[in-house]
Amino acid sequence: ARGTGLYRQLRQCVLGREPLPAPAEHYDAVTVVGALGEGQVPCSALPELLRVTKPGGFLCLTTRSNPSNLRYKAELEAALQGLEQQGAWQKVLAQEVERWERATSEEESTQGTGYISGVVYIYRKCPVPPLEEG
Fold it and tell me: What top-level branch of life does the organism fall under (predicted)?
């Protein structure tokens, strides 16, 4: 990431084990792509992602739907729904993507396609600020 020159600032942390190195309500949008899966980022990291997102800001999260990730996906969706029921955020989108990425084995393939499916979730943090009149 540093070698690309695309980032103004890089900071490291282990999601789920330590706080993100950012102040509360700092980002307009937070994305986690390719990391929400079995043995990677735990579902317990979701409140920390919310903490650093501004009210009215968006969170874009993804996970895979391959057989070895189904238990994690079910835990993730329960956690997502729980935060929504608590009023922490509103679901904007949950979109299944059939050909998310190439499967590494036939067992992981979705119906023999050679691909696995995935899901994109977009949430908006509450409270959503009122629209400015003008």
Answer: Eukaryota
The parent domain of residue 72 ranges over: 27-125
d(CA 36, CA 59): 13
* CATH code of 47's domain: 3.30.110
The 10s digit of each residue's pLDDT in 65-105 is: 999 999 999 999 999 999 999 999 999 999 999 999 998 88
Q: What is the DSSP letter of 6?
A: -
Q: To the nearest 10°, report the CA torsion of 102, 108, 110, 116.
A: -40
pTM: 0.88
Torsion, Cα 121 127 129 131, to 10 degrees, reads 70
